[in-house]
Amino acid sequence: MGFASAAIAQSVEHFIRNEKVVGSSPTRGSRLKLPVMKKEISTSSAPGAIGPYSQAVAAWNLIFVSGQLPIDPETGAMPEGIEAQTEQCIANVKAILHEARATLDNVVKTTVFLSDMSLFGAMNEVYSRHFGKPYPARCAFAVKELPKKADVEIEVIAAL
User: Fold this and answer.
1) Are 11 and 47 within one domain?
2) Domain check: are 97 and 130 in the same one?
3) How far apart are CA 62 and CA 41, in angstroms?
4) Quick one: 98 exposed, middle or buried, by C-beta within 10 A (0-12, 13-18, 19+)?
């Protein structure tokens, strides 16, 4: 069982124990329907959502952070260059995780969107300074275009 699956299973067990769910001993093949316990996470220390989405959502003991563009929340400016943009994306992710009482050490999965795969090496250099072993699982790929002509966007899933 993967770490995220184990975390969800632990949350379900906690819910069953504490909410006294009728039939709380599910048998093999039965389905236990649990309410989705989700909470919006929001902070002014990261760029605000500019559409019908949240900066992050906590569900059970997982935090799903929306893709963070390299926008300085104080100035609204985007730095030049992939290194500076990656630093800003990670700073925004850290601010949102902090609001949820988590850190980069809680991150179990990242997705990195790049405007061009030729930027991967420079992005990876900055990324590696912020994430330690065991490294989060990661997917990185190039997309046709990112919002506001950014070169990078990073989203994460963290476990508490």
Assistant:
1) no
2) yes
3) 12
4) middle
Helix (H) or strand (E) holding 66: strand 62-68
> Strand pairing of 152-159 and 62-68?
antiparallel
**pLDDT of amino acid 8:** 60
User: 24 and 43, same structural domain?
Assistant: no
Largest CA-CA distance found in the chain, in angstroms, rounded: 57
Strands 62-68 and 107-114: unpaired
Answering whether pTM is above 0.70, one says: yes
| Phi, psi (degrees; rounded to nearest 5) at 20 | 50, 55
Q: 99: closest CA among 132, 156, 56, 59?
A: 56
Residues recorded for the chain? 160
